[in-house]
Every structure is written in structure tokens, then in C-alpha cells.
């Protein structure tokens, strides 16, 4: 007798982020650190020295060392507002060349995030470079609808990690807003180091700043910031994977709530 037809759903194809169309490999091989003038620098000495500098001094060093082969990542959360303001002051007051700023558009960001982008662009005269992966329709055709709910790591790989590779493909250093106070997994974040994932240098100028430090700077300088921070969102990502956090809760508790996942894969 023939076996009855299966009523189970067909298996989804395995998702290999490395096979996402238009993959970009970092071209830079900047493991030998030099100044803009070509003089060699000992990365260990730099790392130790930067630990004693404030964020603006750290950014100034990075601009003098890497610009124009440096890019500043913007998530349009509170730390982005701070970093952008510091860079603006350094480039307008000291005559340094303005660096590139970029963001990863997953196509599922909050509307408030786009509004914050526009407010910062208007205030500082910045044209933020947009990097994005395949469209949501293409993703659904390849892997099924609402991939973020079934395989969030794969979704982040497609919508964030691969576009990040493209964004960093022509630079020697990138700048992030990661802080040690964000979570236990980020508690040992260095201010400067080699990013093995993307094969270039990475700067975290706000690594040693507390939540209070960030908000004090925003209020003192009257900076635009993402209004979701006032609605219980201490950390802001994509709409489907970000929830508000109860007062006193972990700063990243609203990201991928209920899952073991804590990072999107770019930090």
C-alpha cells in the first residue's frame, strides 16, 4: 500500500548568507597601521593611549590617522547624535576634512529612525550614505515571509551583515557607537582594535561612556535624538525585533526578546 501523502510543510531551503546576491568582499588589507603620512604606528601603544582620551580626542586621532579611508556608522540612536556632533565640531573648528557617514537600511526601521536621520542631516548638512541588501520581496521569495520570526540570525545576515561588508569594502577603519555599559557581552569593548569579522580597524570612541554621560551631552548641546528613547526604547533596531523595556531593565533587553540572540552580527 502506498504511503499516505505528507501533510507537513515543505522544508525551507538552507540559508547561506555568503550566497546572498551582490556579496561584497572588503578590499582593504590595513593590518599594518600607519599615520596619514605613512609613518608606522604600534597598535598596542595606540590602544593604550586612546583609553586615556575622551571621545572627541579619540575621534580626532582617528580622523588624522585614517581620513578619508574611514566611515562612521549611524544607527540614528542616541550615540549617533553624539558622535555626529563631535565630528561636526572637529571638522568645522579645526579645518579637518569631513568623513563619510553611512547607515544600513533594512527596510524595516522605525519611522522615527528615518525622521531622526532627516533631522540630523538638516542640522549638520550631512548626506548619509545608504547601504541595503536584497528587497523584502526578494527575501520572501527566496526564504519565505517573515524570516526574522523564524531565523533571525539569517535575516540579520541578509539585511545587515552583507550590506555592512559593502559599506566597509573601501575603507581602513570604521567607527561604531558600542559602549561597555550596553550589555555584559560588550563589557570589554576596546576603544580601538582589529575587526576580524570585516578585516579592518574599528573605533569605539564612546566605549567608556555611561548612559548618563550620553544623555548629559545630548542635553547640554541640545542635540536631535530618536524620540523612541523617550518611549521606553533604550536600544533601537528593526520594528519586528525591538520592544520597549521596563524602567531599570537591561538596555538591550528589548532586542530579540525571548530569544538567545543578543547581537545582529555587525558588532
Reported for the largest beta sheet, the result is: 6 strands, mixed
Strand order of the largest sheet: 3-2-1-4-6-5
CATH superfamily: HUPs
Radius of gyration: 20 Å
Helix content: 25-40%
The number of distinct structural domains comes to: 1
Estimated share of beta-strand residues: 5-15%
Put simply, the count of helices is 8
**CATH domain class name:** Alpha Beta
Give a brief outline of the structure.
The protein contains eight helices and six strands; from the N terminus they run ααβαβαβαααβββα. It has helices at residues 43-50, 55-66, 78-93, 111-124, 136-143, 147-150, 152-167, 211-220, and strands at 70-73, 100-104, 129-131, 173-175, 192-195, 200-203. Strands 3-2-1-4-6-5 form a six-stranded mixed β-sheet.
Descriptive notes:
Residues 1-30 have low confidence and may be disordered. The protein has 267 residues and is α/β, with parallel strands linked by helices. α3 links the parallel β1 (70-73) and β2. The protein is globular. The protein has a six-stranded mixed sheet with strand order 3-2-1-4-6-5. α2 packs across α3 (78-93). It has one domain: 3-Layer(aba) Sandwich (Rossmann fold), CATH 3.40.50. The longest helix is centred in the first third of the chain and has 16 residues, at 78-93. The chain contains eight helices and six strands.
Amino acid at each position: 500500500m502506498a504511503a499516505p501523502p505528507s501533510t507537513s510543510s515543505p522544508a525551507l531551503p538552507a540559508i547561506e548568507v555568503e550566497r546572498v546576491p551582490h556579496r561584497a568582499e572588503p578590499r582593504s588589507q590595513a593590518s599594518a597601521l600607519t599615520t596619514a603620512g605613512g609613518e608606522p604606528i604600534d597598535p598596542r601603544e595606540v590602544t593604550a593611549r586612546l583609553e586615556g582620551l575622551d571621545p572627541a580626542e579619540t575621534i580626532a586621532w582617528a580622523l588624522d590617522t585614517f581620513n578619508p579611508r574611514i566611515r562612521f556608522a549611524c544607527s540614528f540612536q542616541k550615540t549617533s547624535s553624539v558622535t555626529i556632533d563631535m565630528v561636526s565640531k572637529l571638522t568645522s573648528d579645526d579645518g579637518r576634512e569631513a568623513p563619510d557617514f553611512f547607515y544600513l537600511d533594512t527596510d524595516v526601521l522605525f519611522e522615527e529612525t528615518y525622521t531622526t536621520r532627516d533631522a540630523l542631516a538638516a542640522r549638520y548638512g550631512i548626506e548619509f550614505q545608504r547601504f541595503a541588501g536584497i528587497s523584502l520581496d526578494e527575501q520572501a521569495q527566496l526564504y519565505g515571509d517573515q524570516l526574522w520570526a523564524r531565523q533571525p540570525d539569517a535575516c540579520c545576515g541578509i539585511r545587515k551583515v552583507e550590506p555592512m561588508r559593502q559599506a566597509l569594502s573601501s575603507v581602513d577603519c570604521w567607527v561604531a557607537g558600542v559602549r561597555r555599559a550596553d550589555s555584559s557581552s560588550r563589557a570589554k569593548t576596546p576603544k580601538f582594535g582589529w575587526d576580524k569579522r570585516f578585516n579592518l580597524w574599528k573605533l569605539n570612541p564612546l566605549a567608556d561612556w555611561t548612559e548618563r554621560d550620553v544623555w548629559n551631552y545630548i542635553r547640554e548641546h541640545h542635540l536631535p535624538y530618536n524620540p523612541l528613547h523617550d518611549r521606553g526604547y533604550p536600544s533601537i533596531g528593526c520594528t519586528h525585533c525591538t520592544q520597549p523595556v521596563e524602567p531599570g531593565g537591561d538596555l538591550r533587553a528589548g532586542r530579540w526578546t525571548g530569544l538567545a540572540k543578543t547581537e545582529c552580527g555587525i558588532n
